[in-house]
Amino acid sequence: MARVWFISDTHFYHGNIIRYCNRPWFSKRDEKGSPVILPQDTDRMNADMIKNWNQTVGSDDVVWHLGDFAREETSLNMVRDVVTQLSGKINLVMGNHDSMSIKKYLQCGFNRVYDYPVIFDDTFILSHEPIAQTDKLGGYTNIFGHVHNNGQYQTFTPNSVCVCVERHNYAPISYEYIRAELQKQHG
Prior knowledge:
The protein is an alpha/beta fold and about 190 residues long.
């Protein structure tokens, strides 16, 4: 039986995201202690996230990617190359770094592409950026990305879930896991 997964902010091909979000793929530090990002670091990040994804997601599963799939300037062929290596049917809710047209993302192999938030399972609003005042969403829970490892946002609250890769070991998380964690939030 197909399962459903969620992830956001993979930023494939985006070397500077390693520094910005303190991702573990850097080879060395400079004299000030800041990570020095080399091209092979970005290649390792891409390869490890693809491996993590494929060890998690089955070929018939559905993955909701909530934006910022790749670095903004990444070419259609580079995005296609990654998408074709990933398991599952991938739906993309576009983020602020997803700058190609919907048509081009579909050409890359995405199952569906949205440039607006999506209602999922009559319970969740899927969006790239968190929706402010989730307690006023009329019973919906917001599943979002965008904030990476920003400590101002919790990974789980009673009304929201952050699925940024930095918070989930750089792999998609299951719908079952999300529902179980939300149950804990509601006591």
